[in-house]
Amino acid sequence: MNRKILTLTIVFIMLTASYAQTSEIVVASGAGFRKMVVDVSKTCEKDYGVKMNMSFGNLGQVIAQIKNTGLVEAVIGDERFLSKAGPEFAESHLIGKGKLVLIWRKGLDIKSVEDITTDKVGKLAIPNLQKAIYGRAGSEFLASKGMTEAVKDKLLVVATVPQVTSYIVTGEVDAGFSNLTDTLGSLDKIGGYILIEDGYKEINIITGIIKGFENTDAAAYYRRCITSAEVKEIAKKHGM
Questions:
Q1: What topology does CATH give the domain 100-196?
Q2: Can you give the pLDDT of all 240 residues of the chain as single tens digits?
Q3: Where does the signal sequence lie (predicted)?
């Protein structure tokens, strides 16, 4: 009996020691998921022994970083965009479903998305139409609802979702397209938001471990973390 207890104790100590020596992994992510990814990184480091060294940008910038540096080991972003632009993944895991929203500045009274075509909205911010997930989704939505022509002279194209939020908060634009994840972290700084549930292609937010990095200790710890129940709850909290 004592021998069994001793054996279990040794195994526990070995597992604890393996996590105590934190591994590190370089993870690039779409900027619109910054708040969620930061929360995920805290869980991964605390509970799974892997530190996420993070970088953020629109997915065009993320892809360029991956190709130019060769240092990025995992990426978080839209499955459709990543599958077309590369890189090659050894594996990928679904984190959640991305959701497009319209947000507006304080002091403005928006009743429906169609209000962006009226005089209520003089400037409408949107992330990069080709390189940002929610810029593309916003563009698809406008086209599907026949509103592209009505708002084309109001559009202010910026690089990322957080930049849209920044322009809204400062009052430099009246409204803009964002995602639910970033918006939920900024509710006290904006006038309000409307969740847009149709009119654009489904957005599957995944993490992919880049081929060639899948067999490292850091990748193993990251895999356990990113597929855990804790991370699913974090994604849910952030609107996915």
A1: D-Maltodextrin-Binding Protein; domain 2 (3.40.190)
A2: 444 443 433 333 344 444 446 799 999 999 999 999 999 999 999 999 999 999 999 888 999 999 999 999 999 999 998 998 878 999 999 999 999 999 999 999 999 999 999 999 999 999 999 989 999 999 999 999 999 999 999 999 999 999 999 999 999 999 999 999 999 999 999 999 999 999 999 999 999 999 999 999 999 999 999 999 999 999 999 999
A3: 1-22
Sequence ranges of the chain with CATH classification 3.40.190.10: 2-97+204-237, 100-196
**Residue type for position 103:** I
The answer, as to whether pTM is greater than 0.90, is no
Which one-letter amino acid corresponds to residue 192? G
Length of the chain: 240
